[in-house]
Amino acid sequence: MSTQTPIDRIWPDPETALDDDALLAATRFPDDGGWMRVNFVSSLDGAATRDGVSGGLGDDADRRLFALLRRPADVVLVGAGTVRDEQYEGLRVDDASVAWRVARGMPAHPTLAMISRSLSLDPASPMFADAPARPVVYTAASAPAARREALQQVADVVTVGATDADPRRIRDDLTARGLRRIHAEGGPHVFGALLAAGVVNALHLTLAPTLEAGDAGRIVRGESAGDLPSRARLATVLRAGDELLLHYVLR
Fold first, then answer.
1. 33-45+58-95+105-210+217-249 architecture in CATH?
2. How far apart are CA 102 and CA 227, in angstroms?
């Protein structure tokens, strides 16, 4: 029988074998909400993917923390390319997370929000058909009208720019919907745009103990502009075996 790799806190206040409550406390959103954090995994040499997807880099501890980071979120924000590459389905958290959320007066599952300039998304896909909460799709005015009309049957389609999606308008719209605790899962181009717009508050980065080589991209892509480069303050260091799970505050 396999066992979970224990997750220890090595800084600050070292502690071994943290339970879920302790991990949630170590990664919690501020009480007043209005916070956007981004979650990524990277190899030691900076690769953000293995064989084109990020899932192959993390182990069971990374997957455990990935699920726990979703637990208190009002919304999970992700780019359309990542949705397709990582094969997202209807956004549902596990039973323990549902119980945790309902006990705190939250909806059973977070809302899924996507960013797509071209609206190249399949309205019949499970991420829409099996969504427990109506998804939100952020797009540009230049997106094809036929795709917009099709997606409006299964999601709220919101225009937040002329030819590209404006991250500040995305954050403002989510906040207006009461979705203040924003958990973003990439991809790298989305992270770059969010950073450049100055709307990211924190980064949760799993550092996988592997060297990947190849031509995999890094966790941030795009032109350096706006608030780039960004300084980060280390908030928490967790360890699971040879893997590090790092929490940085950016703003």
1. 3-Layer(aba) Sandwich (3.40)
2. 37
Q: How far apart are CA 151 and CA 26, in angstroms?
A: 38
Residue of higher predicted confidence among 217 and 124: 124
Q: Count Cα neighbours of 248 within 13 Å in the Cβ-side half-sphere.
A: 14
DSSP-assigned beta bridge partners for residue 158:
138
Residue with tokens 């260091």: 237
C-alpha 189/C-alpha 185 separation (Å) is: 11
Q: For the whole model, what pTM was predicted?
A: 0.94
How many CB atoms are located within 10 Å of the residue 216 CB?
18
Domain regions of the chain by residue span: 33-45+58-95+105-210+217-249
State residue 215's pLDDT score: 81
The 10s digit of each residue's pLDDT in 119-156 is 999 999 999 999 999 999 999 999 999 999 999 999 99
Report the candidate in 79, 99, 104, 108 with the shortest Cα–Cα distance to residue 189. Answer: 79
- Exposure string over 125-136, b if 16+ CB within 10 A, otherwise e: bebbeebebebb
**Which two structure tokens, joined as six digits, stand for 121?**
């998304």
Q: Does residue 1 register a pLDDT over 50?
A: no
**Cβ pair 203, 40 in contact under 8 A:** yes
pLDDT of residue 32: 76
Supply the pLDDT for residue 8: 98
Tell me how long the chain is: 251
Spatial separation of the C-alpha atoms in residues 18 and 236, rounded to whole Å: 13
Mean pLDDT (whole number) for 46-56? 77
